[in-house]
Amino acid sequence: MPSLILALELIGTIAFAVSGAVIAIRKGMDVFGVTILGLTTAVGGGIIRDLVLGNTPPVTFREPVYALTAIGVSLVVFLKPVRHYLTGNHRHAAMLLQFSDSLGLALFTVSGVQVAYQLGHAESLFLLTFVGVITGVGGGVLRDIMAGKTPNIFVKHVYASAALAGALLCASLWHLIGQTAAMLTGFAVILLIHLLSAHYRWSLPHAEGEQEEELKK
Fold first, then answer.
1. 10 Å Cβ neighbour count for 169?
2. What CA–CA distance (Å, rounded) separates 18 from 78?
3. pLDDT tens profile 18-34
């Protein structure tokens, strides 16, 4: 199972690093800014998770494979052919970026629940769910703040709500169907909700008159 968790977290790291790097490029940042935003998106949620759980120093600083992976991916995204493809008006590129964001959200949310269980917090459903959600959305929130945007979780699609549903389901089913099945179920629910919400433009209620402009950004 540890090797499976490592693989899942590395996939999530790659997915979120791509998301962060692309937003940095669209904001006109240089290669350093692109790298930092990709790195922050990829490891930010895990750092917040570890600080909440008292797991210090955070895993990111003890196992640099995550940070190095995020940096490497960000640099690849910055390469001219790659960045032109990902930031252009290509339908497949837009779908890839949307899937990357959804994949990172789902993977990090369930891994956050797993880490909380691993550290002995199995009896607190609230803590397990909260840690799962903050692991999933934390890097994206930091990314958006650093890029000068209102965080997506507050204005765009069903983002944090998808993480909340998946984390709650994963934590609730853990002792009923086992760790692997619970994580897969939570992962599938988050991925499905987020992808469908993006495709059909589902959103939570907004203040009247403000919704349309934010959803177009």
1. 21
2. 10
3. 999 999 999 999 999 99
